[in-house]
Amino acid sequence: MDRVPATLRTARATLANQGVQPRVGSAGTSAPGAPLNLDMAERLGEYERRLTELAHWVNGRKEPKHLRIFTTTFHAAEYLRAMAHHLRQREYVADIYLELRDLERRVISAADRPLVKRPLGECGALNLDEQGTVTKCLGIVEGHETATTGRCRECHREHDLTDRITERFAQAWHVRGPLLQIVKALNAAGYTLKYGTAKLWVHRGKLAPKCDLATRQEGHTPAEVLSVLQAGATYKRNSRNQKLQKA
């Protein structure tokens, strides 16, 4: 709790120094800008929101007849620090500590590292112009590494990066590479897959390496490996549901 004020000031200063991306409203008027460091903005918002939620939760348990209103995150953090001696006597204090520590580290890591953006395909959002014509946005969606949302560079519409990454993998039948490289790419995108498991799929015939005519090298496609991974997850889920129904 002692580090919360410093962490919040560092994160807010980072966002202020990096500025915002200007936007234009529907009628040509200026609209609130979007932070350039979307990852930092997202992590800071999650950290502040959770601190306030925990402060309200502790207040409700310890002072049910004196419910407080926390107008700022600093206020919520000060309250949690004041209640620390009560929290140390409870078994759930370790869970609270670990959760806040992880959130704090995510905020700090976003402040320390450079802004690395990755392109995630065409936006494709439908827009209605003044003449009533529907057009498709041809802008490119970009998102910072580890962020869950990204924005189009043209229309600034927000997109769910998890869905877009899954879609790009599912359509990547034309890209072929070594199995280890494909597994690493899936892990980097958030999928849990061990290289040994993928090799076992090859031995069992679930994955069949094919030769790339351009490079003359055998390999697998991201879409192929993802398809087997998702099929296995669906099978496990259905088996688990059947067992629960029988029970």
Question: Would you kindly provide a written description of the structure presented here, covering whatever features stand out?
Answer:
The protein is α+β, with helices and mostly antiparallel strands and 247 residues long. It has helices at residues 4-18, 38-62, 73-82, 84-87, 93-112, 161-170, 179-188, 195-203, 222-246; strands at 20-24, 30-35, 117-122, 126-128, 134-136, 140-144, 149-152, 158-160, 210-212, 217-219. α2 (38-62) packs across α3. The radius of gyration is 24 Å and the shape is extended.
Question: What's the main sheet like?
Answer: 4 strands, antiparallel
Number of helical segments with 4 or more residues? 9
Please state the oligomeric state of the protein chains shown.
single chain
Poorly predicted runs are 19-35
The amount of helix comes to: 40-55%
Q: What amount of the residues lies in strands?
A: 15-25%
SSE series = HEEHHHHEEEEEEHHHEEH
Distance between the termini: 46 Å
Computed CA radius of gyration, to the nearest angstrom: 24 Å
Question: What is the average of the pLDDT values?
Answer: 77
Strand order of the largest sheet: 3-6-7-8
